[in-house]
Design goal:
The chain is an alpha/beta fold and about 350 residues long. It has twelve helices and eleven strands. Strand 5, helix 6 and strand 6 form a beta-alpha-beta unit. Helix 6 runs parallel beside helix 8. It is globular. The protein starts with a helix and ends in a 7-residue tail after the last strand.
């Protein structure tokens, strides 16, 4: 999202003012969006940029960073390990480290989003913000609550990396359990201390969203709004969908703003996410059927599926693992349906 660009440019300009010709370059650890913003504006401002990206970083983001002229280093299983490596490199090479979610200049860039939200939606009731390192929600919540104190700020983070929730429970940033998630941009195992200090003062609550809900949100945005949004960017909407953590009475009929913060997603990953969304929507269904192993057995099954309006996406039959009857075969089918009622 544009807030990453604002923060990155602000951070580089601030460092250039402070250090002048002594600024050798900037370095950051990022799963993608902060790295992209830093690479783009560093190139434009003539400041060398190095980005350390974890192995889970989407290839599309890695490739774009290189095209923007950044030195890209792949290191670490997640952003925490990438950050540790980047800080060591910064110390050894004399580079200035720019934290993508905890640097004050970065938080200020995120805060401009909050100002625009209040300006564009004066009768605002809720702002639902995806949470990774907590930089975005810190900036937005500070700006929105300063201008409109009655507005409620709700954070949403993936169940597979609930670092802000862990920090709230502990009263300080702590390492949270991390599992690779569709919301790769939010996969920050420890929230930033500066961001957390700001966010805990302004954020009203934080809820979790599942991988299923995230994939469904990406699908809904693509189908209904014609917008390609990455998993992390769609997390806010995911919690608001039917059955989500924010599908509750106190939000019904209210004016809710949800930043869609990020659209950098690999084409191959997008395909898998959409398939998961279709499965969650019961429009893609997998099942096993046992049919006769004689000529016409599978033909009868496909004819039945055709009559029911199911479109076969994949079909595979197994003989070796069916022990009940030598004259039968087990068939695995993946079919496209029209929804739950059709199924």
């Amino acid at each position: 999202g544009s807030f990453k660009e604002r923060g990155a440019r602000n951070a580089i300009l601030t460092l250039r003012r402070e250090k002048g010709k002594a600024l050798k370059g900037v370095i950051a650890a990022s799963a993608g969006n902060h790295a992209l913003a830093l690479a783009y504006h560093g190139n434009e401002l003539g400041v060398p940029v190095t980005v350390v990206m974890p192995t889970v970083a989407p290839l599309a983001k890695v490739d774009k960073c290189r095209k923007f002229g950044a030195r890209v280093i792949i290191e670490g299983r997640h952003i925490g390990e990438a950050m540790a490596f980047a800080k060591t490199l910064a110390s050894n090479d004399g580079l200035s480290y720019v934290n993508g979610y905890d640097d004050p200049a970065i938080l200020a860039g995120a805060g401009t989003v909050g100002i625009e939200i209040v300006h564009d939606v004066p009768d605002l009731d809720f702002v639902v913000v995806p949470v990774g390192g907590a930089g975005l929600i810190a900036g937005i919540s500070c700006a929105v609550k300063t201008l409109k104190p009655d507005v409620k700020i709700i954070g949403v983070e993936p169940e597979f990396c609930a670092s802000y929730t862990a920090a709230v429970a502990a009263g300080k940033p702590v390492a949270a359990h991390f599992t690779p998630t569709l919301a790769d941009g939010l996969a920050v195992p420890i929230v930033g201390p500066t961001a957390f200090a700001v966010a805990r003062h302004y954020v009203d609550e934080c809820v979790l969203t599942s991988e299923k809900e995230i994939s469904l949100a990406v699908l809904r945005l693509l189908e209904n709004e014609k917008i390609v949004v990455e998993g992390g960017g769609a997390a806010g909407l995911a919690a608001l969908l039917p059955g989500g953590a924010l599908d509750r009475p106190d939000l019904k009929g209210k004016n809710i703003v949800v930043p869609l913060c990020g659209g950098n997603i690999d084409t191959t990953v997008l395909g898998r996410v959409l398939d998961r969304g279709l499965a969650a929507d019961r429009r893609l269904v997998s099942f096993y059927a046992t049919v006769s192993d004689r000529p016409g057995g599978i033909a009868g099954l496909t004819r039945l599926l055709s009559e029911e309006g199911a479109s076969i996406k994949d079909i595979y039959h197994e003989r070796a693992w069916l022990h009940e009857n030598v004259d039968q075969v087990k068939v695995k089918c993946v079919v496209e349906l029209q929804g739950i009622e059709h199924g």
